[in-house]
Amino acid sequence: MDRRAWGSRLVAALLLVGLAYGLYQGRRAFIRAFFGDGSVTVAGGPRGPWSDGGLGPAPRVRVVLIDGLGRSRALGRPAFDRLCAAGRELRVDVGFPTVSLPVQHVLWTGRTQQESGVLYRIPALAEPPVDALPAFVESRAIAESHPAIVHSFGFAAAEPPLAVGDALPEGWRAGFDEAAIAAVAEPTRLVFVHVLRVDEAGHAEGADAAAYEDAAAAADALLGRLWAADPGARWLVLADHGHRPGGGHGGPELAIRQVRACLQGPGIDASAAVIDARLVDLSRALADSLGIGPSPGSAGLPWSAVIAGDAPPAELPRPSAGRWVVALLGALALVAAGLVSAGRGLRWGPLVWPLLAHGGLIAFVGPLTLSNPAVYPPLGAALIAAAAPGWVALVVTLIVVLRRSRTLVALVSPLFGGLAPVFFCGVLAGVGGGEPPLIPIWSAECSAWMALAWVAALVTAMVTAMAAVIAAAAPTSPRDPASGASRAR
Ligand SMILES: [Zn+2]
User: Fold this and answer.
1) What's the pLDDT at 34?
2) pLDDT at 479
């Protein structure tokens, strides 16, 4: 065997290890970038005076948010049903991403996630938003857990106290129901109760689990007791998002993005019709109920327009036409490079393993959205394991290369089949645009493809190194296939 042949394979193997490492680190940076704030496209401002939009102010307003209660699981709950039947029921689109603090940011400011730049924020806001509704009235909030959220929106009083790591005071959960009932019974203008047991059960066991059903039933029973403590107030009951059957939220699925909400009390005429609205519209109704003007820049419609069914569908972020062109051209170029370098011996080989790997992902970890917990971990072990059919195909493809073509170019050709989708979804997810790469479908797909690509690069590196070792060890003879390899290079 020609020394240069196995030497170049060894160098190629090292370069491929470097590529795998770069893709692995790139994926980690990509996921970390989800959690930064985006730029503000619609700035809030101090709210002006209330103007009649079909809904007059109420002396007392009570808001109950049942975190993580999907719409289908909110229907048929006794207390929720009674409250809705006595008022107006809405099917509310909370926007994207479906994450608790950002969704509440929409509720309290009237600006969408994309408008405020509060997209996928987990920790408390350092300062309440300038247009945070609770700051304009006498207000109080009480949360079952995760105090970072209720401490972010300017409530005059918020419990439990903000603590490191969302720690709760001793006995807080046990006393929560009674404390919440006592809070809504007070004359405070705005009282907000944030119930979190359903979301916690959803994360722990998924929306299909008995624990989720139990938590939903318990939350509904609490709602009934809260309502009974001040039946004369104007009540808004809603959720912030649903949960996947196996647990998780964050993505744009309708089942997660659409929640049940009901507005009931003095000044609200009961109707059986279910109204479609955006969360910004509901935020406007809340401001009207408190006798406060809308936030400047908020697209929320007045109540008269909402009940007339005039609210347009919520707008989700999507890739620009320019990004589609770049993504398609770049991905096609990478696929072409893979097919050309594969040569006749391999034909469509570079495309087989990625298709099988992606099929494995859908089959074993479910649809790839930001609701799927598998897309976040740094190693992506669940993704890598689910892609097993693709790994079998990749190894078979590489063996075929070693037996038929044996050139270094052919050996790396299958990798292009994995790099093309990384480029494609990375461009569509908004990488390099200076904003968090949060776009429905493409962000989650990209996380998955980057995990597949770094593993594929590593597998290709190992096979290339093995081929170098085998070639170096093989005796040189005219009938030795390895000498063909050096010629084919
Ligand atoms: Zn959650």
Assistant:
1) 97
2) 43
145 closest CA partner among 100, 190, 187, 95: 100
**How far is the centre of ligand 1, averaged over its atoms, from the C-alpha of 221 (Å)?**
21
* 3-state SS string for 228-254: HHCCCCEEEEECCCCCCCCCCCCCCCH
Assign 10 to helix, strand or coil: helix
Question: What separation in Å is there between the alpha carbon of 119 and the centre of ligand 1?
Answer: 14
pLDDT of residue 483: 40
For residue 200, the CA-to-ligand 1 centroid distance in Å is: 7
Q: Which residues in the chain show pLDDT less than 50? A: 1, 477-489
pLDDT at 96: 98
Q: How far is the CA of 249 from the centre of ligand 1 (A)?
A: 7
C-alpha 360 to ligand 1 mean position (Å): 26
pLDDT for 49:
86
Residue-range domains of the chain with CATH? 3-37+318-488 (no CATH), 61-301 (3.40.720.10)
Nearest to 151 by CA among 125, 112, 188: 125
Instruction: Give residue 227's pLDDT.
Output: 98
- According to DSSP, residue 280 is labeled H
CA of 386 from ligand 1 middle (Å) equals: 24
Name residue 191's beta-bridge partners. Answer: 62, 140
- What is the reported pLDDT for 2? 57
